[in-house]
Prior knowledge:
Elements: E1 5-9, H1 13-25, E2 29-33, H2 36-45, E3 50-54, H3 62-72, E4 78-83, H4 87-95, E5 100-104, H5 108-138, H6 149-162, E6 168-171, H7 178-187, E7 196-200, H8 206-214, H9 231-234, E8 239-243, H10 250-262, E9 264-265, E10 274-275, E11 279-284, H11 288-294, H12 299-305, E12 308-311, H13 322-333, E13 340-341, H14 343-351, H15 357-371, E14 376-377, H16 384-387, H17 407-421, H18 426-433, H19 437-447
Parallel strand pairs: 1-2, 1-3, 3-4, 4-5, 6-11, 6-12, 7-8, 8-11, 13-14
Antiparallel strand pairs: 9-10
Helix pairs in contact: 2-3, 6-7, 13-15, 17-18, 18-19
Amino acid sequence: MKKTTILLIDDDDSLRRVMEFSLAEAGYSVKAAASGEEGLRLLDAGSFDAVITDITMPGMDGMQVLARVRERDEAVPVIVITAYGTIESAVEAMRQGAFDYITKPFNRDELRITLDKALKMRRLERQNAELRTAVNDRYRFDAIIGTSNRIRDVLEMAGRVAASDASVLITGESGTGKELLAKGIHYNSGRSDGPFVAINCAAIPENLIESELFGHAKGAFTGAVRDHEGKFELAGGGTLFLDEIGDLRVDLQAKILRALQERQVDRVGGRHPVPVDVRIIAATNRDIERAVREGSYREDLYYRLSVVTLHIPPLRERREDVPLLAGHFLKKFNPSDAVRLDQDALSLLTDYGWPGNVRELENVVQRASVLRRGDIITAEDLPDKLKNEKTSVESIILNLPDEGIRLEELEKNLIIKALEKHNNNQTRAAEYLGITRPTLIYRLEKYGIK
Length: 450
């Protein structure tokens, strides 16, 4: 493991030798210089994790050394050494970017503690930079896998809207990647340095959703022992992702509309409104336009949320993306092995209807990665549901009338027949139709099937 390397510059031979010995004893690799000029030659010839320099030296002084170090690499912390009478110079050095100063005389513990703090700060800055790079790479738009025209159109529009502060409504079935697209918009926007805060409006109990969104004041209700910031406040300066916005109660729709219009929220039990600065990205798998027409969703909120609407198509409508997605997930779950799918397995994946969309495909690939017998995944490694796909539409005999047929009536009748076939068991009927249970419930509501 590489030792932490320190550049030590001081013209006092005795003090320099004591500091060099103390730092080496603490496990650091130390390069020592008797002047500013010699220190800069060492700096140009190597790489250092920190610099310790005296301020008052003949020739090039510590302030000049500091300027050169900052010019070369702003991330390298510089600690300056000063006599009691030149503390003003040390304070000025800190204004110019020095990490800290120590005054003569000092003991070795004071030097080590100050150096440890400087190195810890540098490590944290490096980790933050690496994390931000990783996050930005994770949520680049080209990290959303797909080459089909439909998904490319979505990504192209998302790239254009990211630069603005406009509200975005993302629609699509469950499992299509709506939150991933929302994160892509956030991390490619001017708010990328701010937080990305997500809340699933359908997953929070009704008696808690208002507090979770807007916060509450101390004593607002039993158990409110302190002020609580809601998601609107926590997302300040960044993006608030409202998932399943179509399931929001009508009274909360009005409160969210007011928050968007006034750019402030009222905490539950609070006396004064709290200003907020957030960008809203919402998502739903419901047909909100239909809900607006039926009067169950506020039209004014819908238009506030959907300045730009992005629809992510289901996986069955972009089957050409399945091999790319499967390959991506194979690398994710087998990072050190050259695992691949044989042609039969790939055909099964491509032909399957994917009612659970990309999330279901990821689950299937992960399962196959765990159960595989070798580096080639075969059809035998895939779940039976892919091999026993539903009867194709082409094999169903339909008597199509000459005068035409309403597609919605056909779908409604198929749902009723599936429910009858399975004694009104919604889970089994959904499996039979190749859709998820929430999708079936949505269609039951849509067609008024009781």
